[in-house]
Amino acid sequence: MSAEPDSVAWAAAREKAWSAGRDALGQDLAGSAETVPLERCLGLVLAERVAAQLPVPHYASSAMDGWAVSGPGPWLLQPPGSALRPGEAAPVVTGGLIQEGTQAVLRSEYGVAAERDGRRLLERAPGVSCEEPSAGRHIRPAGEEAGAGDTVVPAGTRLTPAHLAIAAVCGHDGLPVHPAPEVALLLTGDEVVTSGLPAPGHVRDTFGPTLPAIVTALGGKPFPPRRLPDDFAATRAAIEGCGGRVVVTTGGTGHSRADHLRAVLEAVGAQILVPSIRMRPGHPALLARLADGRLVVGLPGNPLAAMMALLTLGAPLLAGLTGRPLPPLGSVQSGARLAPLEGRHRLVPYALDEQGAVPADHVGSAMMRGLAAASGVVVVPPEGARRGQQLPTLPLPW
Ligand SMILES: Nc1nc2c(c(=O)[nH]1)N[C@H]1C(S)=C(S)[C@@H](COP(=O)(O)OP(=O)(O)OC[C@H]3O[C@@H](n4cnc5c(N)ncnc54)[C@H](O)[C@@H]3O)O[C@H]1N2
Ligand code: MOO
Fold first, then answer.
1. In this protein, which residues make up the domain named MoaB/Mog (predicted)?
2. Gyration radius of the chain over CA positions
3. Ligand nearest the Cα atom of residue 210
4. Model pLDDT, residue 1
5. What is the full DSSP assignment across 308-370?
6. What residue ranges do the domains of the chain occupy?
7. 45 CA from centroid of ligand 1 (Å)
């Protein structure tokens, strides 16, 4: 079966989704940000630069356990925390404040405290060079990591634990961030049931238990899934009223009398960015922009097709919307010859054996068993692949 003419190639669909997200972020960045406590900032996009509120470190400290010393030794020992005059030393621990008069730190392995003529002296340990410690040795000077006012994280960064740590070091309790993009989840299908054993003609919902977690892993903030009947008016009302920055729908992407998504998008004047994708499974997946700027990802109803479409459209879209690059593809050696499919990429859940990646069993578009056993998803080009060929992969978000 040949693909319809306006169908988009697989790689182009990813790029279009990412650009749509990045463009939307550009508009959102002009909007309001909120200050969020550090411990809740992970994964959010920074609205303003993080500046050091004080020099970092903000005081000179010792990099070793040992003694702060002044002048050449031996040294007369003083209590910890003493300001020093030449010829004096005082115990100091790693991170301890360097007191006035200190010229260097003698590490504990290099010194011996001894009683001489009723005085407590610090001497170099046997074999330690009399050059030890050279001036400034083992002293971490104030401001060596950042000066007050330096930018330590630029605006637009998606915050990792390392960013939160440097922000804390720089004196911040919270950061101005753009909240995670909200994602409305609309699941269509009269035949879909959410618990128990389905009767013939009914299916158990695979999306309600999974999409919120996947959307979260991809950087979005999911709303609780809403279930819709196969009905034009209900679908239209839900899409118009569900809110969110992104709307993810499942099912109804086809052209049967039970499928209403495309008609609704046309009726509400949506701009179709990706009408369908030259891939399998998942070709009826679509991407659209509503008049109010919200982005709609239409996933097909078949469970594996929906997952492959979510990885192809949803992951890049949320990456763009959260200030990240297009998610990089992995690479794997094919452990089998993979058949061509004219004009389409095939997305195949694979398992690894000693030869490389081999297609998992049970990977029909309505199945989930293969994906459940898979290490990842291999992207097979339309011309197929020979055994031993290196192929791109889509990482799984879990
Ligand atoms: N005449 C044609 N028929 C179909 C075509 C085609 O090109 N011509 N494409 C097929 C492909 S490929 C796919 S994929 C599906 C797309 O279907 P829809 O997106 O319209 O989805 P539905 O028809 O609503 O459902 C399809 C299938 O998925 C099951 N489903 C739906 N929701 C759930 C859920 N929450 N959990 C589990 N399973 C779900 C539904 O029961 C159907 O079996 O169209 C093909 N047909
Ligand atoms: O391509 Mo459909 O999306 O096979 O299930």
1. 184-320
2. 31
3. 1
4. 47
5. HHIIIIIHHHHHHHTT-PPPPPEEEEBSS-B---TT-EEEEEEEEETTEEEEPS---TT--HH
6. 8-33+179-321, 45-55+153-178, 61-140, 330-394
7. 36
62 in ligand 2 pocket by Cβ < 6 Å?
A: no
Q: Is residue 298 within 6 Å of ligand 2 at its C-beta?
A: no
Q: What SS3 class is residue 267?
A: helix
Domain spanning 8-33+179-321, CATH architecture: 3-Layer(aba) Sandwich (3.40)
Which CATH architecture does the domain made up of 330-394 adopt? Beta Barrel (2.40)
pLDDT tens string 50-85: 999 999 999 999 999 999 999 998 999 999 999 999
Model confidence at 32: pLDDT above 70 = no
User: Using one digit for the tens of pLDDT, what is the confidence trace for 198-230?
Assistant: 999 999 999 999 999 999 999 999 999 999 999
The ligand whose atoms approach the alpha carbon of 1 most closely is 1
Q: If pLDDT is split at 50, 70 and 90, which confidence band does 29 have? A: low
Q: Among 10, 261, 283, 368, which is best to mutate for testing ligand 2, by the most ligand atoms less than 8 A from CB?
A: 283
Average pLDDT over residues 2-28: 88
Nearest ligand, CA of residue 309?
2
User: How far apart are the C-alpha atoms of 28 and 156, rounded to whole Å?
Assistant: 11
203 Cβ closer than 6 Å to some ligand 1 atom:
yes
**CATH entry, 61-140, from 3.40.190.10, 3.30.110.70, 3.10.20.600, 2.170.190.11:** 2.170.190.11
Provide the whole-model pTM.
0.81
Give the pair of three-digit tokens for residue 355.
């030869």
